[in-house]
């Protein structure tokens, strides 16, 4: 596979790491925002977008569920990245030289035990890779960064502490999006189908809509609700299910869902990442 894949953040961000892990042959293109990442693909300046959707520790990524249905793009793959946090400093620095560690507030919160054990003051930065770049440009051994090993590689920093996160399971799920859908593939670890829907204004509509998945043996791995346009009465649901719409049981479940919904948009049909299981 050749081409370009866009991600949100600076070089060395965890989204960049996801691009390198899933598509090492593609050129990774950094973008300032999620909207910019999507627009880069929509305009044809990149072939794919790598977007984080949820983290095992902190839940869903803010705003991403609002962006996906309006993006005009289609989910073609998923990938999971273990978020390993490392203490990075300018070359030649010793751990005892470091007085503070800079990173995004989320990463600072995930390394409290290490920081406390070594008496390091947390310093808030705009993001992880940006903090690594700042530490490299500053050149002061008293300030280190918390970021990926990829960021250390890019900015020429030494790893003083490897995999220092408090929680060993911290993982982020990413979705890969493209301009065109691909329903022909079948994954060795199974298939996933993602869609958003709104239920009709009738009693127990959501309960009835979900019944079709239970009776047809379709496993729903995610169901989340969120407000639409800031209205408390307009709710949209985001769902992931195991299976392909061409599977007989999935087709029956989606037909039943259609009866109880006022709208349903298919966001993607794609192979399940083997690490999901």
The count of helical stretches stands at 9
Strand % is 35-45%
Tell me the CATH architecture of the largest domain: 3-Layer(aba) Sandwich
Helix content: 25-40%
Describe this structure in words.
The chain is of the alpha/beta class and 277 residues long. The chain folds into three domains: 4-82 and 170-178, D-Maltodextrin-Binding Protein, domain 2; 86-161, D-Maltodextrin-Binding Protein, domain 2 (3-Layer(aba) Sandwich); 191-276, ACT domain (Alpha-Beta Plaits, 2-Layer Sandwich), CATH 3.30.70.260. It has nine helices and 15 strands. It has helices spanning 14-22, 34-42, 64-70, 105-109, 112-117, 128-138, 149-155, 205-215, 248-260, and strands at 4-8, 27-31, 48-55, 59-60, 74-82, 86-89, 100-103, 121-124, 143-147, 158-161, 171-178, 191-199, 220-228, 231-242, 261-271. The strands form three sheets. Strands 1, 2, 3, 4, 5 and 11 form a six-stranded mixed sheet that branches. Strands 8-7-9-6-10 form a five-stranded mixed sheet. Strands 13-14-12-15 form a four-stranded antiparallel sheet, sandwiched between helices. Helix 8 (205-215) packs antiparallel against helix 9. The two termini are 25 Å apart.
């Amino acid at each position: 596979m050749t081409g370009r894949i866009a991600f949100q953040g600076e070089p060395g961000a965890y989204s960049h790491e996801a691009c390198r892990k899933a598509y090492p042959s593609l050129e990774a293109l950094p973008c300032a925002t999620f909207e910019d990442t999507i627009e880069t693909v929509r305009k044809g300046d990149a072939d794919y977008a790598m977007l984080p959707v949820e983290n095992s520790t902190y839940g869903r990524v803010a705003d991403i569920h609002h962006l996906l249905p309006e993006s005009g793009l289609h989910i073609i793959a998923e990938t999971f990245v273990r978020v390993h946090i490392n203490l990075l400093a300018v070359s030649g620095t010793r751990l005892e030289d470091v007085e503070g560690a800079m990173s995004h507030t989320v990463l600072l919160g995930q390394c409290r035990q290490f920081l406390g054990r070594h008496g390091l003051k947390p310093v808030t930065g705009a993001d992880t890779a940006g903090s690594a770049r700042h530490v490299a440009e500053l050149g002061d051994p008293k300030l280190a960064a918390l970021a990926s090993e990829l960021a250390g590689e890019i900015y020429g920093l030494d790893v003083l502490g490897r995999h220092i996160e408090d929680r060993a399971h911290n993982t982020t799920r990413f979705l890969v999006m493209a301009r065109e859908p691909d329903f022909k593939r079948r994954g060795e670890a199974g298939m996933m189908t993602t869609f958003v829907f709104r239920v009709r204004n009738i009693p127990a509509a959501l309960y009835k809509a979900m019944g079709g998945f239970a009776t047809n043996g379709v496993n729903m791995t995610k169901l989340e609700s969120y407000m639409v346009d800031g209205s408390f009465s307009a709710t949209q649901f985001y769902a992931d299910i195991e299976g392909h719409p061409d599977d007989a049981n999935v087709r029956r479940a989606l037909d039943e869902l259609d009866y109880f919904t006022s709208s349903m948009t298919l966001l993607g049909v794609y192979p399940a990442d083997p690490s999901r299981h």
